[in-house]
Amino acid sequence: MSAEKRKKRLSRKDSYKYMTRLGWDTTYQKEDDVYPELKMEGIKIHDWDAWEDPFRMTMESYWKLQAEKDKKLYAIIDAFAQNNGQQNITDARYINALKVFITGVTPVEYMAHRGFSKVARSFKGEGAAVACQMQAIDELRHFQTQMHTMSHYNKHFNGFGHSVKKYDRIWYLSVPKSMAEDAMTSGPVEWMVAIGFAFEFVLTSLLFVPFMSGAAYNGDMATVTFGFSAQSDESRHMTLGLQAVKFVLEQDEANVPIIQKYLEKWLWRGYKMLSLVSMMMDYMLPESPTSWGEAVDIYIGQNGMALFKDLEKYGIEVPTDMINTIMAEKDHLSHQLWKTFYFHSAAEGLHAWLPDEKKMNWLSEKYPESFDKYYRPVYEEFAKHDKGNGDRFYGETLPCLCQTCQIPLVFTEIEEGNPYVYSHKTTEYNGEKFHFCSDACKTIFTDQPEKYVQAWMPPHQIFQGNCGGATMPEILKWYKIEDGVDNKDYVGSEDEATWNNLKNRG
Amino acid sequence: MSIALLVIQDTEDGRAIVRSIKKDNADVKVTNKPAMIQIEREKEIVIKAITVSEELGRDWDVEEMQIELVSIGGQIDETDDEIKVYWDN
Question: Sign (positive/negative) of CA torsion A462, A467, A473, A477?
Answer without folding.
Answer: negative
